[in-house]
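Re-run with default settings, no changes from the original entry. Doing this only to confirm the output is reproducible before filing.
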Amino acid sequence: MKHPMDFWNERFGHDDYVYGMEPNRWFAEQLAVLGPGKLLLPAEGEGRNAVHAASAGWRVTAYDMSEQGRNKALQLAASRDVSFTYVTGGPEVLQALPHDFDAVGMIYAHFEAAERAALNAEVLRHLRQGGVLIMEAFALAQLDYQPLYNSGGPRQADMLFTTAQVREEFAGLSFTVLEEVEVILHEGRGHEGLAKVVRAVGVKS
């Protein structure tokens, strides 16, 4: 099995933007409710959400393990005349970031099962008290949608989410939204078609 870093470098190592160049709709809608501040985007990939947030006045720090993703994100940022910080590497790079972010966007941040709980807990530590988590990720039920609609997402059940798992893995948040919904995705060739996702908005107590 490929190391995740190799997998993502290969996936992002082409000219097209796998998940498109426009932000995730749920993320953009929820971010617009908040006043601009400091934003952390783990697993940011090719930078579509970071570019949108920076354009809206947020001070953005993006993190991913893929250098190819970072390169394309910075190209996209330059084309839109915005800038942000983008760091790459292993979990130790994420751990070294400040713990004072006003918001965290977890948009299709699906980690390997062995490290998922620890990484999600680490992400939560970077959110200040009163800070907001915005999340959209594939639901466990997406396994039934993949063969029918080819709409994307991991094929390993332990990388997907139920609402109960989100509540457990992000303990310490007061959720204003936590739901499993059916959506039609139009996010590049990687996310296209009918899908089942979990959406959440939570405030750190």
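DSSP finds eight helices and seven strands in the chain. Residues 4-204 form a domain with the Rossmann fold fold (CATH 3.40.50.150).
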